[in-house]
Structure formats: C-alpha cells, structure tokens
Amino acid sequence: MAGRGRRKLIVVSNRGPASYERDEAGERVTRRGSGGLITALRSLVSHEDVTWIASAIGDEDRAVAAEAGDEGFEERAEDGSLYRLRLVAHDPRSYDRFYNTVANPTLWFLQHYLWALGDAPDVDELLIEAWEGGYAVINRGFADAVVSELDRMPGAAVFFHDYHLYLAPRLVRDARPDARLGHFVHIPWPQPDYWRTLPDAMRRAIHDGLLANDVVGFHTRRWRGNFLDSAAELVGATVGAARDSAEYAGRRVLVTSHPISVDPGEFEELAQDDAVVAAERELAARRPERLVLRVDRTDPSKNIVRGFRAFGLFLEQHPEMHGRVVMLALLDPSRQDIAEYVQYLEAIRAAAAQVNERFGGNGWLPVDLRIRDDFPQTLAAYRHYDVLLVNAVYDGLNLIAKEAPILNERDGVLVLSENAGVHEELSRWAITVNPFDLVGQARAIHEALELPAAERREWIEGIRAHVRRHDIGVWIADQLADLDAGEAAAER
Q1: Domain boundaries, the chain
Q2: Which of 51, 133, 173, 406 makes a 20 to 30 Å CA pair with 151?
Q3: Is the pLDDT of residue 113 over 60?
Q4: Three-class DSSP category at 243
Q5: Where does 264-469 sit in CATH, by number?
Q6: Considering only CA atoms, which of 36, 4, 32 is closest in space to residue 17?
C-alpha cells in the first residue's frame, strides 16, 4: 500500500524497457526502450520492486529469453536501479497475427475512428484466424507469465498497459481471483456504436477482459465516459452514479482518468546534449522568418495529409507570407510492415510535394519534409517554432503538445485538435481546431502567426506551469493510488 515502503509491482506491456541485438563485432548489446510509455514508467523501477513482462520481439530478445529459461532475469536501468525483466517468446506466426492484423491496424484503427465504414473493415476469415490464433494466443502467453510471477511474488499488484493486452486480465483473474489488477489504456476509447464494427464475441471479450481488472484508467474524462457507456451497452455493466465505476460479474471496477505527462527537467537536460546543439545550429542557419512545426509518427491518426492541405490553403489565402514561412514536418516512419501505413506515407509525400510544386520557388520550399527518427533534431526544433500544429484525427493524449513548450524560446503558439486527449488540459492556452476542417486549420495557422506578443507569452507560460504542476511523477503517483483504491473498492 502507499506509504509502506517499496511495493511489489508487475508491469505488463508489449514492448519492454530493454531489447537486445548484436553489434558489428558480434557482441550482445542492450538497447534501452523508447516511446512515451517506457519513458513514463521508468521512474517506477527506481522506487518500487518491479518485474516487467514484455514480448521478446527480435531474434536476440528470443535468445536472451531462452538463456533465462523463459523466466525472469535481473536487468539494470539507466540510473543504475535493478529490476526483473521477463521476456515472453511468442510463436512468430502468432505474434505477427496478433500485432500486424489485430492490434495494428484493427484495434488501433477502430479506437481512432480511422475506418471509412463503407469500405472497411472486412471481418473475414483472415481477421477471425488472427484473433483466435494470434491475439488470443499472445494474451494467453502474457497471462501465463503473469500468473507465474504472482506465484513467485504473492501480493504483487499487476499493471497492464494498452490495447495489446485486453484479454489477459480475465485470464489472470480466473486463475488468481484475489489478484490486484490495473489496466491503463493509452489510446482513445470510441463510443459504443463504433465497437459494433466487430463481431459480438470479439467486442464482448475485449470489454469482459478489461472489466476483470480492479482499475481501468484513461487519459481523459471523455475516453473514460465512452468506456463506461460501452461497458453498459455491450456487456451489461452497471455504471455508478458518479460515473467513476462499473459493477460487472459481481465485482466493482474503478474507472479513472489521469492524463500522462513528461519530466520537464529531463527535457531541459536532454536539450543541452551536443547532438541537439549541433542540430540547432543547422536549423538556425536555414531558419525562415516564421516556422510552423509538426512532429509526428507517420500514422493516419496524426492527420498529416490534411495538415499539409490546410497549410497550402493558408498560403493560397495569404500570398504576403510566401517566402517567409515554412512548415517543418519531422516525421518518424511508423509500422511499415502494415499496408495502410505504407500507403499513408506515400500520401504524405504526395501532399507535401503538391504544396511545394504549387507555391515554392526562388529557393523557398514551403514544406520541409524530413522522414527519419532523429530525436536531437526534434528537440532543436522545439526551441524554434512559432506555431506548433497538433491536428490529430483522434489521439489518446499527445505528449508533443506538452514537450515542445517546455523548450520553446519564441513564445510559440499551440494549434490543437479538439479530438486530441490533451485538449482537455491545454485548450485554454491554445487555438482549437476541428481536425477535418481545412478552412478552420488554415485560419488558425494565420491567427497563431498574428497573435499579439503578450498573449503568446501568457499562453505558453500557462502550458509550462501546468505541465510542471502535473508532471510524470504526479501521473505515476495517481496510478499507484488508483491500484490501492481499486483494491479497496473490490473488497466492498
């Protein structure tokens, strides 16, 4: 319980805090995990007794898992803290079905409202086989590993993460009825009708699995409310009067919302790195008069193509800005094993080229498109933007909107989609846009560039103060408190 020293925690996620590969000399090297989830949970390792269960994804991961006898082994975090890592080596064919057919794109597309329902999805034999022989199998593998670790650490709390693991909590609950289970969903939760794109058995299994936890967490009240509505409508759960819990299968499940955050101090320290300083010199040497920035993965949910089209419309409406403004798009190529993502990357390139061909000239390239994973370049760009465009179709949260203002030195203005989860927190210090409205986005870019200096300063300082008050440490503390509260609620 909170306040009683180091607690025993089992963290469960598809990707883990460390992965393994061979260098050019054939020596095994450890790569520290990246991504928002891994970074967010890193501090847990320093303060709690953590066992982390994750997939053995690469060949060297599987070799490490085999050497450990498919059991846990000791690993060291970047700060020197020790934790226990257990890599689950799945059947490669099952994992491919799990990840590349069900988790991505099916669940990801569903939960981000990305389907044009007249054309997709087709629930065909391929999807059914991937569900039964992939998603269900991988979740069973995770559940078996959790049960094994619970036997080793009786009384440990289990902290599941995200859309990869919806079925595992029910399997663990059935095997260990008294286990303390929490699950945080990091992506949007759609309204009940959208879940009806899946067959009844699938959508019931997803909701039943999540409701086997003591606590289910989301980033926003909006996603929490949608989950409660779908739990009531699709599996008959009874929603509490305060809309913070659900009664299901004889148990009370606490349903919470806590927006994840960042460590501002860590970003300020990272920005002093030599690679960031070098990237900043390169950017400053070529910097236009005004800079519009977007930083995204090449995911359809990020709405990059519409963002380029809106920028083109802005240039059409404001010829006085020609040669003076550039949109810098720093994009990390995402999930290129999946056809929809390959096609979307092609659409991104085409949309950028269309704007540049129509408006560019005399050495001016309106859209500076850079497709590569380059974190130092991103941190350098955070310092220099005048406008930060976050126009996601839907987003569970969006940490870019919190990270970039911490480092920005130009009182940059945030243009923010009303469907990004972070809008719930930051809308008072941002220009809100509808992600489908190109005219509105073009107008917002102009408004942001013309915003008076005093208002720009007030807004960015408001974001910074909010992020410092509600940093990643607060989010971690909220999760641990929820696990304790969920255990108490389940006992009532």
Answers
A1: 8-260+473-491, 264-469
A2: 133
A3: yes
A4: coil
A5: 3.40.50.2000
A6: 32
Q: How far is CA 364 from the centre of its chain?
A: 34
Angle, helices 375-384 vs 274-286, to 10°: value is 50
CA-CA distances (angstroms) from residue 326 to 133, 365, 385, 399? 48, 7, 10, 23
CATH number, domain 8-260+473-491, options 3.40.50.2000, 3.20.20.10, 3.40.50.300, 3.40.1180.10: 3.40.50.2000
Residue whose structure tokens are 């501002």: 264
Contact criterion met (CB below 8 Å) for 37 and 162: yes
Q: Is the pTM of this model over 0.90?
A: yes
- The amino acid at 151: D
pLDDT digits 0-9 by tens, 9-52:
999 999 999 999 998 888 999 888 766 677 777 778 877 899 99
Q: What is the structure's pLDDT at 2?
A: 40
Do residues 185 and 216 lie in contact, with contact meaning Cβ atoms separated by under 8 Å? yes
Rounded to a whole number, what is the largest CA-CA distance in the chain? Answer: 72
Position of tokens 């807004």? 459
